[in-house]
Amino acid sequence: MPFQKSLSGNEARPGIFVALGANQPYRRCTAFENLRRALQLLSHEGVEVRSCSRPWRTPAWPDPDQPPFLNAAAQIDWPEDDPERLLQILHGVETACGRVRSTPNAPRTLDLDLIDFRASLRTPESSDGLVLPHPRATTRAFVLLPLREIAPHWRCPVSADPIDRLIGRLSWEDRKGCRPAGGVLHAATHRLKRASS
To answer: What's the pTM value of the predicted model, to 2 decimals?
Structure first.
């Protein structure tokens, strides 16, 4: 089973990783503010944000004519061993931030995807539709580039491929379209940078 190392070099158990994205405002909140609010709401649900990437700006997929997305990745701690329950919490936070589920890939105020839950392997047949790791995470620059920022030693639990190899398989167009956007989403970003310096 692949294990991840923290940026401080200490051994770590397999972690829980969430991808965040938004390309629509909600009420008076910009997409950036919605990502920040989502992280705050997670803490109210007993989810601790251990580290968080910078926001990254990415063309909307699959329709680049839609507003661009802000994306990020966060490593979280959660005391339970129930990814389905965690997914319910993520969906509740999406709703609190104005997410309305309509057509697939529609513009949205918030998208929270459970990327990896302690290296668990789950198929739709074994877990009421929840697939782990997220079935499309390893092919998306807007997931892998922010994830590498907080988990440079992460490996895909299915293939055991390291994240740098997965990023190397992405097209140049996908990689160049995903760029750091500036700003700090969570205080854990500062802790992350201090730990890596």
So the answer is: 0.87
Residues 6+ away with beta carbon under 8 Å from 145: 56, 167, 175, 178
* Alpha carbon distance 185, 95 (integer Å): 19
What single DSSP character describes residue 128?
Answer: T
Q: What percent of the chain has pLDDT over 90?
A: 70
CB 14 within 8 A of CB 119: yes
Residue 36 CB coordination number (10 Å): 19
Assign 3-class secondary structure to 50-79. EEECCCEEECCCCCCCCCCEEEEEEEEECC
Those residues with Cβ within 8 angstroms of residue 48's Cβ, 6 or more apart along the chain or in another chain: 76, 77, 78
Element (H, E) at 49: strand 48-52
Q: Is the dihedral of CA 47, 87, 29, 192 positive or negative?
A: positive
Residue with tokens 């070099």: 9
**How far apart (Å, rounded) are the C-alpha atoms in residues 186 and 197?**
18
Contact 30, 180 (CB under 8 A): no
| Exposed/middle/buried for residue 99 (C-beta within 10 Å: 0-12, 13-18, 19+) | buried
pLDDT (tens digit, 9 = 90+) per residue, 14-69?
Answer: 899 999 999 998 888 899 999 999 999 999 999 999 999 999 999 987 777 889 99
